[in-house]
């Protein structure tokens, strides 16, 4: 078996930890506004009318923080600034011009850290950062001989809350600590720059009687008469030499961020969204400015009363304070932290994520991955029937009211127009062939040079081949029962397809073209006519019933009749005729394949892929409804539009298409870059944007959703929600997202679990003060009804379906194994087979193979049980280092061995392999994420979705050895990390999110890095493209 690795790819970028800044690039330019993203900085120019984008700078590591430093200590004028960008591995880069970094620092010991304090000195090239280890890491950039080293300075070992340099003549740094007896303490150190040793300043070291103190604000105007810094919590503690005093302030929540407007004016936000102005003059006063509906984590004063308010958990805002009022100018939408993730829905081609919001509401987001169709321009056109290729940049469009025209996409103009209903067009050396409903035109130089009417074609004599006779002869070799006489076929067509009576047999229904032999095929009624370019009929095939669609590729002609019989005709006129499935067809396509031709049949609610040799179905998909198929110019793929638009390939794989308009009913891939789509009102020219692989649609609610599950009959999304202190359950119709069912539970009941038991049943878990309930809800005569109810002592904290008739319930320190019995009348009763004592309350459990139960215990263990007879038996307990937040079971790695995923409360994602024989486990990989995991869910086979508390959505998938090696090399080039191959059972999770940044890096640097890692850019590109394909296939329909 090939070696397996794991790739972690971001689908939705997390909200960055860093706050935005304003800085001056040069003395002649107005200040620039910078917003940090996870792997890039976005630069904006500040104008009197607002901000306008300048450019984006990509980086190869996760950005942690962004600071501004005076530039005069780097030989720059004092009127400009430099940026200091900190990364999660404690490295940083200093620059003013993005193309010319001033200094780079990379620590020898690289460790991912997302929880350290950082500050820079306001007047010197000093940087301090601490990882809460009782040490301050101090970097001195003022002296060249010290720049290559970070000095570790001892401070208090008590938990660090905040740390700031002070605006004093001596280099001082104040730290705020959480003390064991639940009070806060400020320690201030004076740094001896010659010895690089901190000495305590007793005048500015003291305890604070404010349990909520969490923010130090250094004051810019420092003198003997002015305070030196503030400590903010529920109160504002004003700190001066030898004295402190406190000021009452109206904060609703803890203060979270601040910025300077001037030396005396400071704007500050609290966690509730309130904004205040602190005035430091002869006294300290606090003025309320207003409130915003977000949770601020950074604020930047831009100019003219305009502020940028950033958030790690909500949308970012641009606001303006004017006329004593705070007004929101712009909302910068960000993906909100997730609470739960559903499985994949075949019907919608997406999975769903729930979110909560600060203002008491919530949202459900549908996430769909695939190739994004980007619209370039459109034009109004009604009643469109067909779109056909004329040239690489020209197409012919036809309407049902007999108007056809050739459109040039380069110049956006019409080249030819005639009053015909076009069936299809085929490119020739000097022009193209226009096959109309009642004639064929040869067009050269956009002028009709030759034409023949259908009546003339039907009157021409030619060689006649009866398909039914050939079909009976050839098909009897493989399956005599499948061959039918012409008479039987005609009788079946008449009985099963009464609508055939309305078909106009005096029109061409379909056509195809053999470019090599210059032969046109047209389907008329029950005949296929073979016509050369002189417009003479050379051959005629007669079928036992009317033909719906034909297609040709390399010596193979395929046809499908109105009732679903498929025929193939090769170059020796050998015919087959079979009915592989009982469906009503719409179109047929012949696709190229390495081993065998593939035939795609599009019908009313799905499609089937069959082989040329014996016309057996190798793939079949049902969509619910479908509009049409569109042939691709490379003859290896076909676009199928409908409820789940996708691109299908000859190997059976598919790639979903993300369309902004669900009403497209026909399309054409004009070239590799250009795709034409049409609906009832217009046609659109666009392309496939391979860099945008995700579509997010969010539906807002007045409630806070937090649990999700799905039912198949009818297609519904069930949502557990919370509103004004009461828990409830609602169902949404898919794909309309309309509310069908809504119930609220008793005031003292908390909805704790929600799972799907079958296509028509769900089970919920409720927890009260002393006991809980499990309830089964079923769709009975199109109404959701509670059909079963059972009390559980102590409460219900997690549920798992063991099989159709058994349920696993996690109670208060007990695991219940329950049998579900259904009477003939539909009533459900519960029989508790077993109650097993557990060490703690379990918040997550899973069942697998109908004989194993996995508990992710909050007391740092993963416990497994196995069915022995009619009872569960504990077989293994695997200890873990941290408390498990969530977990899920993955796929089978090899017979009897499965993936197991978990996340702990420290932000680590773990992968284990578990042997089902003895339930033994071994950790095979882990990685640190930028924030704690909020949800871990297997949305479908081979894909696990991980959401984080800072709004990130990531795909974790297994990759084969070839791709894993390419990812490793590409990652090493980008991240400059080394892989440890000593343990063959260790398969690293490659954070491959930013491999594409190589495209933006200087070519010389890339070449040097590639050479150092003994790899090539083509191998890196292979890894990037494969990851794109993996992401897109999360939501591919089967």
Automatic annotation (TrEMBL):
<feature type="compositionally biased region" description="Basic and acidic residues">
    <location>
        <begin position="476"/>
        <end position="490"/>
    </location>
</feature>
<dbReference type="InterPro" id="IPR011047">
    <property type="entry name" value="Quinoprotein_ADH-like_sf"/>
</dbReference>
<dbReference type="InterPro" id="IPR050358">
    <property type="entry name" value="RSE1/DDB1/CFT1"/>
</dbReference>
<feature type="domain" description="RSE1/DDB1/CPSF1 first beta-propeller">
    <location>
        <begin position="161"/>
        <end position="324"/>
    </location>
</feature>
<dbReference type="Pfam" id="PF10433">
    <property type="entry name" value="Beta-prop_RSE1_1st"/>
</dbReference>
<dbReference type="InterPro" id="IPR036322">
    <property type="entry name" value="WD40_repeat_dom_sf"/>
</dbReference>
<dbReference type="InterPro" id="IPR015943">
    <property type="entry name" value="WD40/YVTN_repeat-like_dom_sf"/>
</dbReference>
<feature type="region of interest" description="Disordered">
    <location>
        <begin position="468"/>
        <end position="490"/>
    </location>
</feature>
<protein>
    <recommendedName>
        <fullName>RSE1/DDB1/CPSF1 first beta-propeller domain-containing protein</fullName>
    </recommendedName>
</protein>
<dbReference type="GO" id="GO:0005634">
    <property type="term" value="C:nucleus"/>
</dbReference>
<dbReference type="InterPro" id="IPR018846">
    <property type="entry name" value="Beta-prop_RSE1/DDB1/CPSF1_1st"/>
</dbReference>
């Amino acid at each position: 078996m090939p070696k397996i690795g794991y790739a972690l790819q971001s689908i939705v970028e997390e909200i960055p930890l860093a706050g935005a800044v304003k800085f001056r690039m040069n003395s002649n330019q107005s200040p620039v506004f910078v917003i940090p993203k996870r792997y890039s900085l976005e630069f904006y120019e500040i104008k009197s009318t607002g901000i306008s984008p300048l450019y984006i700078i990509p980086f190869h590591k996760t950005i942690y923080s962004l600071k501004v430093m005076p530039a005069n200590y780097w030989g720059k004028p004092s009127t400009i600034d430099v940026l200091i960008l900190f990364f999660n591995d404690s490295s940083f880069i200093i620059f003013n011009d993005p193309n010319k970094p001033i200094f780079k620092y990379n620590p020898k010991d690289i460790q991912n850290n997302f929880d350290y304090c950082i500050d820079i000195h306001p007047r010197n090239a000093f940087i301090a950062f601490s990882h809460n280890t009782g040490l301050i890491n101090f970097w001195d950039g003022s002296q060249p001989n010290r720049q290559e080293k970070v000095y570790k300075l001892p401070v208090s070992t008590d938990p660090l809350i905040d740390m700031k340099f002070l605006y004093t003549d001596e280099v001082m740094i104040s730290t705020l600590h959480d003390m064991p007896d639940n009070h806060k303490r400020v320690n201030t150190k004076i740094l001896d720059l010659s010895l690089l040793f901190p000495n305590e300043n007793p005048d500015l070291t003291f305890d604070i009687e404010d349990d909520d103190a969490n923010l130090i604000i250094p004051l810019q105007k420092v003198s003997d008469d002015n305070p030196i810094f503030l400590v903010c919590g529920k109160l504002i503690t004003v700190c001066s030499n030898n004295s402190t005093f406190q000021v009452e302030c109206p904060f609703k929540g803890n203060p979270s961020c601040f910025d300077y407007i001037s030396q005396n004016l400071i704007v500050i936000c609290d966690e509730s969204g309130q904004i205040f102005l602190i005035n430091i003059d002869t006294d300290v006063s606090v003025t309320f400015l207003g409130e915003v509906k977000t949770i601020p984590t950074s604020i930047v004063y831009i100019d003219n009363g305009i502020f940028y308010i950033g958030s790690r958990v909500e949308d970012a805002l641009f606001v303006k304070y004017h006329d004593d009022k705070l007004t929101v100018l712009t909302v910068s939408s960000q993906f909100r932290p997730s609470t739960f993730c559903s499985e994949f829905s075949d019907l919608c081609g997406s999975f769903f994520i729930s979110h909560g919001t600060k203002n008491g509401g919530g949202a459900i987001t549908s996430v769909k991955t695939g190739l994004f169709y980007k619209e370039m321009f459109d034009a109004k056109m009604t009643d469109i029937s067909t779109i056909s290729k004329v040239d690489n940049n020209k197409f012919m469009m036809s309407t049902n009211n007999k108007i056809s025209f050739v459109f040039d996409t380069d110049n956006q103009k019409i080249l030819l127009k005639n009053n015909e209903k076009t069936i299809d067009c085929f490119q020739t050396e000097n022009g193209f062939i226009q096959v109309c409903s009642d004639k064929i035109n040869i067009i050269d130089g956009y002028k009709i040079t030759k034409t023949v009417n259908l009546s003339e074609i039907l009157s021409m004599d030619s060689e006649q081949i009866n398909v039914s006779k050939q079909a009976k002869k050839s098909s009897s070799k493989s399956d005599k029962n499948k061959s039918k006489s012409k008479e039987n076929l005609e009788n079946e067509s008449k009985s099963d397809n009464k609508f055939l009576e309305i078909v106009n047999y005096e029109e061409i229904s379909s056509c195809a073209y053999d470019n090599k032999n210059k032969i046109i095929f047209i389907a008329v009624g029950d005949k296929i006519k073979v016509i050369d370019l002189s417009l003479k009929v050379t051959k005629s095939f007669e079928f036992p019933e009317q033909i719906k669609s034909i297609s040709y590729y390399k010596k193979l002609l395929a046809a499908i009749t109105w009732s679903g019989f498929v025929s193939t005709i090769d170059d020796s006129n050998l015919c087959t005729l079979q009915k592989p499935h009982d469906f009503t067809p719409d179109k047929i396509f012949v696709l190229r394949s390495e081993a065998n031709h593939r035939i795609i049949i599009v019908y009313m609610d799905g499609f089937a892929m069959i082989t040329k040799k014996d016309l057996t179905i190798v793939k079949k998909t049902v969509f619910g409804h479908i509009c049409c198929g569109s042939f691709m110019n490379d003859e290896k793929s076909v676009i199928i539009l409908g409820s789940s638009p996708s691109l299908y390939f000859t190997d059976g794989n598919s790639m979903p298409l993300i369309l902004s308009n669900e009403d497209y009913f026909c399309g054409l891939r004009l070239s590799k870059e250009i795709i034409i789509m049409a609906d009832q009102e217009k046609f659109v020219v666009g392309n496939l944007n391979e860099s945008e692989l995700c579509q997010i649609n969010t539906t807002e609610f007045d409630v806070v959703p937090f649990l999700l599950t799905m039912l198949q009959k009818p297609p519904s999304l069930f949502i557990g929600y919370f509103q004004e202190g009461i828990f409830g359950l609602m169902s949404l119709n898919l794909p309309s997202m309309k509310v069908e069912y809504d119930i609220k539970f008793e005031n003292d009941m908390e909805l704790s679990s929600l799972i799907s038991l079958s296509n028509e049943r769900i089970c919920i878990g409720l927890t009260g003060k002393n006991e809980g309930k499990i309830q089964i809800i079923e769709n009975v005569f199109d109404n959701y009804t509670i059909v079963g109810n059972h009390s559980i002592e102590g409460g219900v904290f997690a549920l798992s379906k063991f099989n159709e008739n058994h349920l696993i319930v996690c109670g208060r320190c007990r695991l219940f194994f329950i049998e579900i019995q259904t009477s003939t009348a539909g009533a459900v009763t519960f029989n508790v087979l077993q109650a097993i004592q557990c060490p703690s309350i379990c918040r997550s459990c899973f069942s697998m193979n109908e004989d194993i139960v996995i508990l992710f215990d909050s007391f740092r263990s993963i416990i497994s049980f196995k069915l022995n007879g009619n009872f569960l038996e504990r077989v293994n307990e695997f200890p873990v280092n941290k408390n498990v937040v969530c977990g899920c079971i993955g796929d089978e790695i090899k017979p009897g061995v499965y993936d197991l995923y978990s996340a702990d409360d420290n932000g680590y994602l773990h992968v284990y392999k578990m042997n089902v024989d003895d339930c033994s486990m071994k950790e095979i990989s882990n990685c640190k994420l930028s924030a704690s995991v909020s949800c871990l869910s297997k949305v479908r086979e081979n894909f696990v979705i991980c959401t984080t508390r800072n709004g990130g959505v990531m795909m974790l998938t297994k990759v084969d050895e070839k791709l894993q090696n390419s990812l490793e090399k590409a990652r090493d080039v980008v991240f400059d990390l080394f892989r440890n191959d000593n343990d063959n059972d260790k398969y690293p999770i490659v954070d491959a999110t930013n491999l594409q940044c190589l495209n933006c890096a200087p070519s010389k640097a890339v070449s040097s890095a590639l050479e150092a890692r003994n790899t090539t850019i083509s191998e890196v590109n292979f890894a990037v493209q494969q990851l794109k394909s993996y992401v897109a296939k999360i939501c591919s329909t089967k």
